[in-house]
C-alpha cells in the first residue's frame, strides 16, 4: 500500500469509529481523504501547534478545544477556515499540514496504519515527552491485557479472592495512569 492509501485508509477508519461533534470537521476529513494531492501534503503527527500549518482535532466531548487550526503562529477554532485554506492550496510547494488527533489509543492506531510521522517543528524537549507517553501507554495496555486474562482464568476457577485482587490492581494501575496526566478518558 502506498503512503497515500494508508492515510486514506486511516481517515476512513477514523470516520467509521469516531464522529466529531462538529459536522464540518467530518466533512473536512472526507475532503482530505478524497484529494490525492492533499494527501501528499498531510502528516499525522503530534504537537501540531509548532508547525507552520496544523490541525488539532479532539473527539472527546469534554475537550476545551475540540478543533484548532494553526497557521503561521495564529490559531483558529473554526474548521471552515482550515477547509478554505486546504481547498485554495493546490501547489506542491505549500507547507505540509500536520494533523494531531485526540482519540483513545492514538499511537497504536497510527502505527497500525503506518501513518505516524515525527513533527520536525517540535521543540526537542517535547519529543522526549511524546516518546515517554507512548512507552507508558504501551506498558499500560500490556499490563491491562495481562490482568484481564488473569481475571478470566480466576473466574473460570471460581477463585473470587484472586478476581478481587486483580480488580484492585487494575484500579491502582488506572489511578497511576491518571496521575501521570496521560489519561485520555472522559
From TrEMBL:
Organism: Eremococcus coleocola ACS-139-V-Col8
Superkingdom as given in the UniProt entry: Bacteria
Pfam families noted in UniProt: UPF0302
Descriptive protein name: UPF0302 domain-containing protein
UPF0302 domain span: 7-102
Coiled coil, from the record: none
Amino acid at each position: 500500500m502506498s503512503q497515500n492509501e494508508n492515510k486514506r485508509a486511516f481517515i476512513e477508519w477514523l470516520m467509521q469509529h469516531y464522529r466529531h461533534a462538529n459536522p464540518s470537521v467530518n466533512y473536512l476529513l472526507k475532503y482530505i481523504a478524497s484529494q490525492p494531492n492533499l494527501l501528499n501534503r498531510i502528516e499525522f503527527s503530534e504537537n501540531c501547534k509548532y508547525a507552520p500549518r496544523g490541525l488539532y482535532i479532539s473527539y472527546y466531548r469534554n475537550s476545551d478545544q475540540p478543533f484548532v487550526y494553526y497557521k503561521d503562529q495564529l490559531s483558529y477554532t473554526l474548521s471552515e477556515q482550515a477547509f478554505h485554506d486546504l481547498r485554495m492550496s493546490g501547489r506542491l510547494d505549500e507547507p505540509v499540514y500536520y494533523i494531531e488527533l485526540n482519540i483513545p489509543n492514538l499511537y497504536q492506531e497510527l502505527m497500525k496504519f503506518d501513518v505516524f510521522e515525527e513533527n520536525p517543528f517540535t521543540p526537542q524537549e517535547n519529543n522526549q515527552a511524546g516518546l515517554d507517553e507512548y512507552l507508558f501507554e504501551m506498558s499500560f495496555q500490556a499490563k491491562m491485557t495481562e490482568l484481564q486474562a488473569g481475571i478470566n482464568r480466576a473466574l473460570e476457577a471460581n477463585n473470587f479472592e484472586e478476581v478481587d485482587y486483580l480488580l484492585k490492581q487494575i484500579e491502582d494501575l488506572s489511578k497511576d495512569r491518571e496521575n501521570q496526566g496521560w489519561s485520555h478518558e472522559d
